[in-house]
Specification:
Peptidase_M14; Aminopeptidase; metallocarboxypeptidase activity; three-stranded mixed beta sheet; 3 domains; Cytosolic_carboxypeptidase; mainly alpha; ATP/GTP binding protein like 3; 9 helices; zinc ion binding; single chain
């Protein structure tokens, strides 16, 4: 490294869980130096363009975890090699292009070696057209990521959107349709809002329920009392009309075996 510049360092590994072929890089949190931050992503992006059915740029990661500080790519990166990667070839197959749903064979892995060297030639080409195209594309990606982050962090209410759209004063049909749609949404929200009753209304409702419950209880008692009397009278009438003297005379009778002695 003291005598000549090392443009790129790359380990070749196999991955057992993630699909496709991808790279692990370094310096993912170095956003203060924008040029260096984007430069470390140019070569993986070139790989994805030269081999779109096997290599996935979206699966590449550039963060350095504490447990990975002893790996070759991190050690070389700390020594000054900015393009320091680990290329992972999957055991699970591809989800890209014509290779979707299939496993990689020996020819596929050999072709990745060809595309790796081809991308390295593109990266070192004196004609920097491809280099700057990838750099511009990465800048657009970064803007898109920042915009998504801003949108996720912002919390704009529907009322604010309505005020903003109405204050533009545009005469186009598109803006009118959007405004009418927003107004329709606000009217639906207002219609779904629960109506809160006053204390007087709540008390009158409770009184009606209480009176209805008392009326049901009174009607129930008035029905049960006559039925109870009627049932008692039935039991009384069913009792045999026999005097007590006749009952005692019946038990005083001598039994048949008393005369045998």
């Amino acid at each position: 490294m003291e005598k000549r510049e090392v443009i790129l360092y790359c380990d070749l590994h196999g991955h057992s869980r993630k699909e496709n072929i991808f790279m692990y890089g370094c310096g993912g949190s170095d956003k203060c130096n924008k040029a260096l931050y984007l430069q470390q992503r140019i070569f993986p992006l070139m790989m994805s363009k030269n081999c779109p059915d096997k290599f996935s740029f979206s699966a590449c990661k550039f963060n350095v975890q504490r447990s990975k500080e002893g790996t070759g790519r991190v050690v070389m990166w700390k020594m000054g090699i900015r393009n320091s990667f680990t290329m992972e070839a999957t055991f699970c197959g591809s989800t890209l292009g014509d290779k979707r749903g299939t496993h990689f064979n020996t020819k596929d892995l050999e072709s990745m070696g060809y595309h790796f060297c081809d991308s390295l030639l593109d990266y070192c080409d004196p004609d920097r057209t491809k280099y700057y195209q990838c750099l511009k594309e990465l800048e657009e990606m970064q803007k898109h990521i920042n915009l998504e982050k801003v949108l996720d962090d912002s919390d704009t209410s529907l009322k604010e959107i309505t005020v903003e759209s109405s204050s533009r004063g545009s005469d186009s049909s598109e803006s009118n349709e959007s405004q009418s749609y927003i107004l329709k949404l606000t009217s639906q929200i207002k219609a779904k809002k629960k109506h809160l009753r006053t204390k007087k209304e709540r008390n009158s409702t409770l009184a009606r329920h209480k009176n209805a419950r008392e009326e049901r209880e009174v009607c129930g008692r008035g029905y049960l009392i006559p039925r109870h009397k009627e049932s008692n009278s039935d039991v009384k009438d069913a009792k045999p009309n026999v005097s007590d003297d006749r009952i005692f005379d019946y038990f005083r009778r001598p039994f048949p075996n008393q005369d045998l002695e």
